[in-house]
Specification:
This protein is 49% helix and 8% strand. The protein is an alpha/beta fold. The chain folds into three domains: 28-118, no CATH class; 193-314, no CATH class; 321-492, Nucleotidyltransferase, domain 5. Helix 6 (110-145) packs parallel to helix 14 and helix 8 packs antiparallel against helix 9 (244-268). The two termini are 43 Å apart. Residues 144-165 have low confidence and may be disordered. It comes from Alicyclobacillus dauci.
Amino acid sequence: MYANHQDQQILPGDFFLPFGGRLSEDNRWVQLSYIIPWRRVEQEYSKHFSRDLRGGRAVSVRMALGALIIQEREGFSDRHLVQHITENPYLQYFIGLEAYQEEPPFDPSLLTYFRKRLGPDIINQVNEWIVQAGLQEEQNGDDDENRDEPPRESGKFDANGGSQSEVQEPPTHQGKLILDATCTPADVAYPTDLSLLNKAREKLEDILDTLHAPHKGEMKKPRDRRRQARRDYLRTAKNRKPGRSEIRRAVGRQLRYVARDLRFIKQLVQHTPLTALSRRQYRDLLVIGELYRQQREMYRLRNHRVSDRIVSIVQPDVRPIVRGKAKANVEFGPKLAISVVNGYTLLEEIGWDSFNEGTTLIESVERYQERFGYYPEAILADKIYRTRENLKYCKDHGIRLSGPKLGRPPKQTDPEQKKMERQDMGERNAVEGKFGEGKRIYGLGLIRARLRQTSETVIAIQLLVLNLEKRLRLLFWLILDELFGTDFDISKVVA
């Protein structure tokens, strides 16, 4: 039965607050604030600022990093992020405010400077601190479970002939390292030769207007034929199924229009310096010059391949990455190589040009040894990592590399070897889960940042959020274990 509800809007002063003006310790943002080493991050962040007392006071690292974590965790835009922080006292506590305030803590435009100031190097360093702390907590938890066991006596003796308790030597190999790579698509339109040339022509026309503006009425404006070029482009672009010959003719026309505009710009520069252009126009002019060279070469050779191919004028660093996936054979964005250790994700390499992820294995293993003090027992990776160089390196260092042997498969397979390969394949799927979690929930599937540095910072923050969520889930299970005494294995907690 539907009950009658109050039909009048209650006043804000009459709204009941269950926490009585105090924040709850069990809130997720409060728990996350305990995990991040703010003081250590502050020491790294302060190096980027001068000690000069003149000028405005810089925003604290907790506010800058906390705001970026909230944004990537919740998927807010810059403007919506500031609105949510202004409305939520838990978010204000997370970014380091001492009391709730109704005014926005900072302007949305500052988020761009936060990404530039922090940078991917600082974010990756914070990520490694969090991963090391999480692994240490898990190891301490395992030690606490076995604390009632009596210490074992060893057969060794000291120099005086007395017995001594067993001294555990540091392990040389421990844990498993999972490696894989993926592409993080950038927020660019699907590039075609015709659309790129049309966009370049439109930008060149704006540059022509800017260079000719100081001489209006004194000098005749170059005849760029922009209306005719627009009609030629739309004639093919609006055709639902244009043929190859029609597309080639349209591309040739746009190439000639772009070349004509570039010649006019070269003539106008003799009267108006390039300093009359804005920074964006000057940058677009340089990019279009290289784009025209590439498109002219591909048009002449009748192919679609060229080194360092530009697929976006706004983001010239983006390259086509051939992945061979069923959903999209080619993706456009930086390529990302990561490693997964006990459910924690670490960035190994990020490249805007396509690279063979198999070449990153040795560097990833050496970083593993630097981070934890020992080599992994096994490496779980795709077949692309099983090169002769990698196999020799793993054999020399006593590391097992998963997968079958090189060469022709044997006629009789070892059941134990087949069982181990199946087990490795199941454990290696954890890295696919990390890719899915990052792309579907935390924005790794579409990078909206424009600049190269800010895009790398956004990717690093998203990996940081993955590890924070991992530690938050682990903390949740530990609280349940203390409250209800439930028995569970930490290693089986959802990664």
